[in-house]
Each structure stands twice: as structure tokens, then as C-alpha cells.
């Protein structure tokens, strides 16, 4: 699932920033959730 989230965010054009935060794991999960909600 993590890979799908990263791909989705990358497609959003903010992949680089989110990928860096993704290293934390939980951070990307919370951010991805808010980002996908919007």
C-alpha cells in the first residue's frame, strides 16, 4: 500500500517532498490521508 500512496502523491507533482517525508512512514500515512481527502 505504501508504494501505491507514493505513486499517487508523485503523480500529484509533490512526490519529492512526500517521498522525503515518507522515510518516516507514519508521517507519509497521515499526510497522504489528508492529501487524498482534499
In short:
With 38 residues, the protein is an all-alpha fold.
Total separate domains: 1
Overall morphology:
globular
Average pLDDT works out at 66
State the end-to-end distance: 19 Å
Total number of helices: 2
Structural class by helix and strand composition: mainly alpha
Please mark out the parts with pLDDT under 50 across 5 or more consecutive residues, or reply none. Answer: none
Rg over C-alpha atoms, rounded to the nearest angstrom: 8 Å
Q: What series of H and E elements makes up the topology? A: HH
Portion of residues within helices = over 70%
Number of strands: 0
Largest sheet: none
**Beta content:** under 5%
Description of the structure:
This protein has 38 residues and is mainly alpha-helical. It has one domain (2-37). The protein contains two helices and no strands. Helix 1 (2-22) crosses helix 2 (26-37). The protein is globular, with a radius of gyration of 8 Å.
Primary descriptors:
2 helices; 38 residues; single chain; mainly alpha
Write the layout of secondary structure elements.
Blueprint: H1 2-22, H2 26-37
Helix pairs in contact: 1-2
